[in-house]
């Protein structure tokens, strides 16, 4: 497998750990390049050193904080132009962000996803200046993190990824960000266990004990076959 | 890539040609095993070209449709085609027929199945009847307590993909996967040309393949794709373990 660049864009840095920490560790272990852009300042400047340390430990090689006001997320047209330039500069093979369905309980997540899509739209327009950076391809695939209440927002899993070997790495990072938050930890674990049941029992991935699920924003083109 | 078994179940003989002929030819060319089950010949409702001829009869229609189906299957490289010769318009899938299909699934043990989409097609209820019957049959095949002539139980997770219907939007079809069929498109054209009883279909399905190819190339990054077929996906992708592959 060719080395890829995975770009994650989330409201908070902790969203990436909770939603796709296992996949970050997996991609990093396989030698892929993983970058994270955090849109809001909701976690506070004081936490930044800890977040940097934890994300780096998980395998994120570049972490940027856009530091826009959160709750609600304020993301202006200029911010979209800025993010478009970042897309052109990073040239990711694929992007992971929040689900594209509006999230009633965490509206910032829906706003972030919409901002990513709008910014990508700009990045792929040859006539948008973006500091003279080469235009982005039209076809970069995007995937949505599993929300806390999937059915409520109409989220549907499109890809399940076995993260069993990377569970410890993920939960070590998780515990540093949410020490003592047993409820949150349990929910995170239970969700991964349930997805693993789907991944092994319905997906035929034997030995899968923990999995992370993502929605896919578009159809599959690149493989050229049905089952792979 | 490991050799796989592809099972195609269609309502009428022509369906496997228009809706999946390119993918069948591609898999066959790569050495995979392709089985086609045509539940009906489409004598009543899908042979309108034939019924315009003089002196038409159901028996002659059956013969012609069988020859057309066999010839198309030969051109595409199908390993085995079965004609179950049920009545069409409407297709009637009794419990017994569904059990027969379940046993057939256990016998073949396909790696994946192509059939009509699971969303309602308001223009062709046979397509939905076939799709529903296939899913019921698969449920039976994967139930360890179902008898099915003592054949080993089918796994729960066999992936299924839905054909693109004639009118996509009104049938709520959403493409989930595109297959580039550029290299085998001549075979698909020849196979479609076999179907003299539905001669009006070819041009439409050539255009569809061109449109799907432009999406596959420009939105999917499959450069050089000039012809493609689209299918819906019914389940999440688990097997690959990565996002982009």
UniProtKB/TrEMBL annotation, chain A:
Give the matching Gene3D superfamilies.
LmbE-like (3.40.50.10320)
> Sorted alphabetically, which SUPFAM superfamilies does this protein's record hold?
LmbE-like
Q: Which InterPro entries match?
A: LmbE-like_dom_sf (IPR024078)
Protein name as catalogued: PIG-L family deacetylase
Per the UniProt entry, what species is this protein from, by scientific name? Yanshouia hominis
From TrEMBL, chain B:
InterPro entries hit by this protein: GlcNAc_PI_deacetylase-related, LmbE-like_dom_sf
**SUPFAM superfamilies membership:** LmbE-like
Looking up Pfam families in the UniProt record yields: PIG-L
PANTHER family listed in its UniProt record: BLR3841 PROTEIN (PTHR12993:SF29), N-ACETYLGLUCOSAMINYL-PHOSPHATIDYLINOSITOL DE-N-ACETYLASE-RELATED (PTHR12993)
Q: What is this protein called?
A: PIG-L family deacetylase
């Amino acid at each position: 497998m060719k080395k890829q660049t995975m770009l994650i864009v989330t409201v908070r840095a902790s969203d990436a750990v909770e939603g796709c920490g296992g996949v970050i560790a997996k991609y990093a272990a396989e030698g892929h390049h993983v970058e994270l852009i955090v849109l809001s300042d909701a976690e506070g400047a004081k936490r930044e050193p800890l977040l940097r340390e934890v994300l780096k430990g998980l395998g994120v090689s570049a972490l940027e904080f856009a530091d826009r006001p959160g709750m609600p997320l304020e993301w202006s047209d200029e911010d979209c132009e800025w993010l478009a330039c970042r897309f052109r500069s990073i040239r990711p093979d694929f992007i992971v962000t929040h689900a594209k369905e509006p999230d009633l309980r965490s509206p910032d997540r829906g706003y972030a996803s919409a901002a990513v899509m709008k910014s990508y739209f700009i990045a792929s327009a040859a006539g948008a200046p973006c500091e003279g950076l080469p235009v982005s391809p039209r076809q970069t695939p995007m995937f949505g993190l599993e929300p806390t209440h999937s059915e409520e927002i109409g989220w549907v899993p499109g890809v399940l990824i076995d993260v069993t070997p990377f569970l410890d790495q993920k939960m070590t990072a998780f515990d540093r960000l949410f020490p003592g938050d047993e409820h949150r930890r349990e929910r995170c674990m239970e969700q991964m266990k349930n997805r693993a049941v789907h991944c092994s029992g319905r997906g035929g991935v034997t030995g899968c004990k923990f999995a992370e699920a993502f929605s896919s924003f578009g159809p599959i083109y690149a493989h050229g076959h049905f089952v792979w | 890539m490991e050799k796989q078994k592809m099972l195609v179940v269609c309502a009428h003989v022509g369906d496997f040609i228009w809706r999946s002929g390119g993918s069948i030819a591609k898999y066959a060319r790569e050495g995979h095993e392709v089985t086609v089950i045509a539940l009906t010949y489409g004598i009543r409702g899908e042979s309108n070209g034939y019924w315009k001829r003089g002196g038409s009869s159901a028996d002659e229609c059956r013969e012609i449709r069988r020859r057309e189906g066999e010839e198309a299957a030969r051109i595409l490289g199908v390993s085995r085609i079965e004609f179950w010769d049920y009545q069409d318009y409407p297709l009637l899938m009794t419990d017994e027929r569904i059990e027969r299909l379940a046993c057939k699934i256990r016998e073949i043990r396909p790696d994946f199945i192509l059939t009509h989409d699971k969303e309602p097609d308001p223009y062709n209820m046979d397509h939905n009847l076939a799709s529903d019957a296939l899913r019921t049959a698969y449920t039976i095949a994967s139930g360890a307590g179902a008898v099915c002539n003592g054949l080993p139980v089918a796994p729960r997770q066999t992936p299924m993909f839905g054909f693109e219907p004639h009118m996509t939007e009104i049938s709520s079809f959403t493409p989930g996967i595109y297959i580039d069929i550029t290299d085998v498109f001549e075979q698909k054209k020849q196979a479609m040309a076999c179907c003299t009883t539905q001669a009006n279909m070819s041009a439409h399905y050539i255009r569809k393949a061109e449109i799907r190819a432009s999406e596959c190339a420009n939105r999917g990054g499959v450069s050089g794709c000039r012809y493609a077929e689209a299918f819906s996906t019914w389940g999440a992708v688990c097997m690959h373990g990565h996002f982009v592959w």
